[in-house]
Structures are given as C-alpha cells and as structure tokens.
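Hypothesis: this fold can be encoded by more than one sequence.
Test: take the structure tokens below, design a sequence, compare later.
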C-alpha cells in the first residue's frame, strides 16, 4: 500500500495529468515537453520529478488516457497535493475499490451462468493482477469493473444500465470498443439475424453508449483534440513494439524482403485481421447466449493481443478476466508466461530476449490449439 512502483513509469504520467486537470490545462492538447519549455508548467518539486521520471515516450506524446481515468487522476492529486507517495496511495485505493466492485459483479455473473464462484480467485489472486494493478497502478482494473457491471446488467436485460457501463469502461480504457459488434447477435432472441426487435434493442444500446462517451469527452473538447489523440493512438500500430508474437515473425520477413522495419504496413495489416476476426465472431451465428458472448469476447481480445505490435504484461488482464467465465484456461498460462517479457528491462535501455519470447508463445499457442481445436473435437 505504501510503496512507490518500481516496474513501470506510467504512474508518473497519471499524476502529471492530474496536475494539469487541476490547473485547468487540457492534457489532450499539450505535450509535457512543450509545457515545460514554454514555462506553462513550472518544473519544480513534484512536477520536476514527474517530468524527469515519466520517460521519453510520455514526454513527447499527448495523453491518451480517457475521461474516467482523467477524473480519478484529478481527484487523487486534489486530495494528495504535491506529495508523491500520497498520490500513489490514493490511486492504489481507487484500483482496490474497483477490484472490490469487480468481485461483486463477477460473483453474480458466475452464479448466473452456473460456474464455480471460486473462479474469481483465478483473477484476483493472480500474481499478474496483484503486481500490475495493485502495485504498479495500471488502470485496467477500473475498466474491468465497469465491464463486469455492464455484462451483468446485459444478462439481466437492463439495456440502458449496461450501455452506461460499457461507456464507462471505454471511458476508462478504449479496448472494450471491440466488443460492440459481438453484442449485436446477443440482442437477437428469435434466432433470426437482423430482426426488428434486435435492431431496435441494439440501436438503443449504442445510442445511450455513444451519448455517454460524447458527454464524457465534451469536458475536454477542442477542435485539435481528435487529431492529436489519434496521432498518439496510431503509434501503437505504427511505431511501438514489445513482446509481440505474429508481428515479430512478420517483421523478420519484412526485413528479409525490404531491408527495413515495415511496422507501418504490418501493424495496419494485423489490425485489419483483428477486425475481421471480431466481425466473423459477430456474424457467425444468428443469435448467441450469454456464455457464448463471453467466450467470443475472450477470443476477440486474445486475437487482438496476439496480432498486436505491443503486449505489455498488464494488457492481458482483459482476456484473463473474461476467461474465468469460460471453460478455457490458456489465459491463466499466459498470465504466468508473460513475466518472461520482463527480461527485456536492463539497467540501460530495453533489449528483448527472443529465445524467452519464443518459449512464451510456443507454450501459449500449443495450449490454445489444444483447448480450442483438439479438446473441442475430443469432447464433441
């Protein structure tokens, strides 16, 4: 509770954004480097420490943390002031409160779909979750709380509350956006795709969701916000690379063919493949039940990270959480194997060990193949 995170620099940017919001400076419009160089933000005391420690990527890029994250960063700084440890403690408390809420709705969902309630322990006692959420303060746990809330109310046919929950999850981390097409076949109760009732229910869901997101972002609205936000987000598919699987294999092929890193092309291609996977799952069946929806969400998020150019350990908390509501356990294995990626962090710089990455993904792909292909055929 009272420790400064040592394995990630991200929390320094969280606090930095909290300072900006409290001073009326839009974090989506200004680079930390620009603010310091123009003397808009005084590089003294806590601000100087944050600037020095947040790393080159944060210093030279606009904030991409959505409104709910910005709200909690702002509250934390408002309560803690310029004390670094106090800011860390408040951020940690927010994550722990979110985890309590996640457990509450997670247990309700497990009860509804007749799965053992002890499955929740596979998530909350997982070393990855304890280290990356509670200790390193990554915000995935808040997003997962809102996602769990939304899924519970979706199962209960309370469409408006569910839509608000998804909106809050997206306004915490953008990733749940990928699940919207998957919800469409779940809305069908007649076994017929594109029936009138299905379209009406889904339209209500999307309207409430989009309205809530627009309202959340309207607080920060500026004509330049979208272009600057998109500029930074696009880096995840055209510049950033870490602990990838398919991308690293394709990158090697690209080097052999062209002599340079083709990440700009390969990243967009892999994003297209992920999109096609999500659309395939969305229209594979005319209607799906709740258990199938959860399985498809697990497959979609797994595909997203397998085809991603950047897979930091805390990213996979999303599919790990979804897996506890299914019969699949490959995410449990991945949550252990992903720690091999920490071998990249050296005293000076980052240098990935491709042998360890090969071990990670060899075991993962073997387990996925067994659970989804071999075991399924044996059961059927």
């Amino acid at each position: 509770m009272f420790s400064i995170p040592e394995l990630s620099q991200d929390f320094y940017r969280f606090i930095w954004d909290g300072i900006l919001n409290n001073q009326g400076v839009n974090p989506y419009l200004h680079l930390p480097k620009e603010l310091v160089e123009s003397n808009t933000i005084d590089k003294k005391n806590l601000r100087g420490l944050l600037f020095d420690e947040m790393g080159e990527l944060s210093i030279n890029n606009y904030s991409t943390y959505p409104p709910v994250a910005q709200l909690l960063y702002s509250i934390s700084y408002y309560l803690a002031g310029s004390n670094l440890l106090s800011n860390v403690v408040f951020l940690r408390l927010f994550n722990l409160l979110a985890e309590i809420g996640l457990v509450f709705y997670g247990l309700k969902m497990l009860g509804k779909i007749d799965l053992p309630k002890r499955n929740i322990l596979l998530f909350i006692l997982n070393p990855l979750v304890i280290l990356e959420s509670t200790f390193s303060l990554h915000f995935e746990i808040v997003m997962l709380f809102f996602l769990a809330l939304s899924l519970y109310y979706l199962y209960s046919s309370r469409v408006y509350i569910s839509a608000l929950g998804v909106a809050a999850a997206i306004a915490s981390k953008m990733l749940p956006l990928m699940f919207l097409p998957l919800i469409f076949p779940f809305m069908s109760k007649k076994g017929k795709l594109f029936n009138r009732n299905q379209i009406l229910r889904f339209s209500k869901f999307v309207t409430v969701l989009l309205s809530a997101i627009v309202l959340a972002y309207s607080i920060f609205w500026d004509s330049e916000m979208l272009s600057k936000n998109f500029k930074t987000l696009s880096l995840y598919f055209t510049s950033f690379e870490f602990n990838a699987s398919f991308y690293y294999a394709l990158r090697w092929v690209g080097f052999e063919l062209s002599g340079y890193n083709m990440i700009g092309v390969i990243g967009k291609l892999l994003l297209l493949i992920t999109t096609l996977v999500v659309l395939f799952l969305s229209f594979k069946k005319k209607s799906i039940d709740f258990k199938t929806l959860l399985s498809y969400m697990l497959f979609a998020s797994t595909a997203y990270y397998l085809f991603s150019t950047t897979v930091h350990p805390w990213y996979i908390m999303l599919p790990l959480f979804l897996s506890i509501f299914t019969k699949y356990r490959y995410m449990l294995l991945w949550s252990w194997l992903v720690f091999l990626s920490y071998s990249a962090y050296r005293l000076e710089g980052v240098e990935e060990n491709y042998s360890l990455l090969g071990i990670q993904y060899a075991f993962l792909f073997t387990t996925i193949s067994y659970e989804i292909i071999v075991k399924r055929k044996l059961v059927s």
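The two ends are 48 Å apart (CA to CA). Residues 188 and 195 are 7 Å apart (CA to CA).
Hypothesis status: open.
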